């Protein structure tokens, strides 16, 4: 297997004009693939003052890597994933087995695509709903994690960003057969998340229509054209809205 080179983040001043990368390897194939389209901004979730008050008052509040348990049924996820994130998630679920909803406030992508897709399958296996709050931002590899929810909902002002991946030699998905391991990994994942083969191919083609060095920003309504949402009043997602100070 080819050794994967280390990837460094760009300086903050350069983030607005560039895209960082994460790595994936399949057998003898190593690739530098998609990470967050860098906008240079953090996006706060809804009503932070009310949420912070509720979190401070909650005796079970605990952090596990990029995850934070707010109460026994609700955890938040903020930041990028890496090779350690699946273990952090598993530790959280062992300690809080009744968690039902994962709120995604600011999720710019991943450093390790294999770990990211494994995490998505874990989210689905544990039966969690995924929820993007008002002003939330979910990009690149984190979109795969949003898809993993058994129930999914995004508030109207949530934003999603997608783009293609690129390997070390500069190839993007269209430069190799759809049956290539790099492409098949995504299609198989989307199928495991409930898409038909046609839906998986359509969604994958949409994300790959944008070059690696750019990105396509989608509103919550635009993303809903590709990923089915559940009603916001569903039990699990409703619990998140209430915990966030919603009505």
Detailed description of the structure:
By secondary structure, this protein is an alpha/beta fold. It has a domain at 51-163 and 215-241: 2-enoyl-CoA Hydratase, Chain A, domain 1, CATH 3.90.226. It contains eight helices and eleven strands. It has helices at residues 48-57, 85-95, 113-125, 141-147, 181-192, 197-208, 220-224, 235-243, and strands spanning 19-26, 29-37, 62-64, 67-71, 74-78, 101-107, 129-132, 137-139, 152-154, 159-162, 216-219. The strands form two sheets. Strands 3, 4, 5, 6, 7, 8, 9, 10 and 11 form a nine-stranded mixed beta sheet that branches. Strands 1-2 form a two-stranded antiparallel ribbon. It is globular.
Radius of gyration: 17 Å
Shape: globular
CATH fold category name of one domain = 2-enoyl-CoA Hydratase, Chain A, domain 1
The CATH class of one domain, by name, is: Alpha Beta
Helix content: 25-40%
Full CATH superfamily name of one domain: 2-enoyl-CoA Hydratase, Chain A, domain 1
Total E-strand runs:
11
**Low-confidence runs:** 1-57
Based on the coordinates given, report the CATH architecture of one domain: Alpha-Beta Complex
Could you tell me the strand content as a percent range?
A: 15-25%
**How many strands, which pairing sense, and closed or not: the largest β-sheet?**
9 strands, mixed
What order do the SSEs take from the amino end to the carboxyl end, as H and E?
A: EEHEEEHEHEEHEEHHEHH
Supply the helix-strand structural class.
Answer: alpha/beta
Task: Report the end-to-end length measured between terminal Cα atoms.
Answer: 52 Å
Query: What's the rounded overall pLDDT mean?
Result: 77
Give the number of helices. Answer: 8
